[in-house]
């Protein structure tokens, strides 16, 4: 019953690994303790008598925003967030200094300007709305962006060269074409009157020529709805409606399916039911090995498919990282005199989420919890900009937990990467930084 030599060696190796891990943990704890002692010694050497019960002036939350943090004592920090549809201008965080003044500038919440890209054409005026804009068009133009000329069927001009002629005369006809027709003009007592036949309008370049009206464009979103149920085709002096293959035009604008269209519709309905059954069964290509990910990659199941991802530890100057788990890279110990190394992140953590399109907002997408508390303050910050800040923000749910919030729906398919930094501070001195990268695969499906 005695263990053989190989079993004894295996047991000794396991014990050796446990002792090595315990030794590394003890060394890291000693280094952290040494940092705290050095910080305390440095603070004690520079200690100055401070006023008792001294606080900085009260800070108000910006209009259309909120303030996080109630303490106004020296060394404490407050954070500011803007409501959905607004962006912050100024300092996101402010710290109460020993001089009883706040760092940074007081922030304001500015509405996203939808008119910054000058969407209104042909002299139109843009009016900024919440998450949309409105174009006030100049005279003679219409449409969502003032892109379409308002139809003009006649024009009246004073002809000074005609004098006071009492008889009516007809002007020469312009060159005719498929989409250009001559206007009918007469001169009566020095005034020129030009008209166009139905479906044409006076040209802006030539008052005596009539150009075809593109009814499909001008009346695309009229009071009675679109001209055609499916597709509108402009013709000379008019328009016609068309339908997809297998459908016939009825009532001049509607579409009625034929027998073939009915069969196609039933096939599509069956495909849709099959797709719904796919999600109901929750097919996991990663668990069933129905994927082509390599050994170095990690398979992430998504709605309607999968993604192959590979986690590589970052390469940062003055520091080296080693992978301690499939989704985590930790920094190797820094020399005591290497300040640049100690300022780099302690670890990187990678997480992947499968998300359907157009999720309702606001909602919590991810939580970050500090396992232990070394300093007197934790700070959570959303890094990056652009689409990430348009759709996400970071809030604190309690003293040791931060959460990534979805503030506006995301239309898929798209991949978004949000990076959240958690910092540990002791009297405004940074003790550690921890970066969490959340990658979201937003599918084209929505429920």
TrEMBL record:
Native source species: Ilyodon furcidens
Protein name: Fibulin 7
Residue ranges occupied by any Sushi domain in the UniProt entry: 54-111
Ranges of residues in domain EGF-like: 111-147
This protein's UniProt keywords: Calcium, Disulfide bond, EGF-like domain, Extracellular matrix, Glycoprotein, Repeat, Secreted, Sushi
Subcellular location: Secreted, Extracellular space, Extracellular matrix
Predominant localisation class: secreted
Family: Belongs to the fibulin family.
